[in-house]
Design brief:
- The protein has 288 residues and is mainly α.
- It is 75% helix and 0% strand.
- The chain contains twelve helices and no strands.
- The chain is globular.
Length: 288
Amino acid sequence: MSHRSILAVVFWMSGALLSFSAAAVSVRALSPTFSVFEILSIRNASGILFLLGLALVRPGLRCGLKPHRLGLHLTRNTLHFASTAAWAYSLTILPLATVFALEFTTPGWVALLAIPFLNERLTRGRLVAVVSGFVGVLVILRPGSESVQPASLMVLAVAFTFAIVSIVTKRLTMTESTFSIIFLMNLIQLPLNLAGSGWGFWHRVDVSQALPLTGICAGGLLSHYCLTNAYRHGDASMVVPLDFLRIPLIAFAGWRLYGERLDPYVFIGSACIIAGLLYSLRREAKSS
């Protein structure tokens, strides 16, 4: 990878990290009033309206409204719908840092799946990033401690499904525009989420919820825009380990906003994660 590509990946992943964290906090804030499906319906509907408005003022984007690889879009979005619903539910019953830490078994699966499905090489730098990420997660969770609950198994299943979604997304970026991928994601998932929502749930929307509603709408849209662009500029096995940085970020948010215990092990584990990432990025830069 070139230096420019590495910088582009870091830039887009920074946006994805902030957006995913904002969306997670917004889900927690809205959960007393709305179900998971209702929250995701609001996110999908706002995304469709915004993207249609964008296509209205920018005619060049309109070709992205028509899918060219419908089978892959359906596969990606059906899996993403199920995994996102389970992820959003887990945010309401587990500490934020625990959910994100368990979710970060995803890079290991991505690195393995990318070899046969994307013909990517598992370089030494990427392997170090994945292994250090797993070590960091183990330090954070400390198997056998109170962090591990039955609901954690659901998050592990979500992590594997997210890995498959990442592989399919990377395949789509080879032929599809970012606009098309995100538009079809919202279009396909909206009716699925509405099917699980209560009738007239939008009547419960209140001005006092403006901030978390903005967070779920803007964060939900920007996170996938940034993540898709990151996949466009870098290999999946390099992009996904950068997502480990969400753990310390969301741990701080959980402590600051919800009084969740700021476990020092989170930061020790995060140091392992960051060290592996810096090593990986340095190796990528040298090999370019």
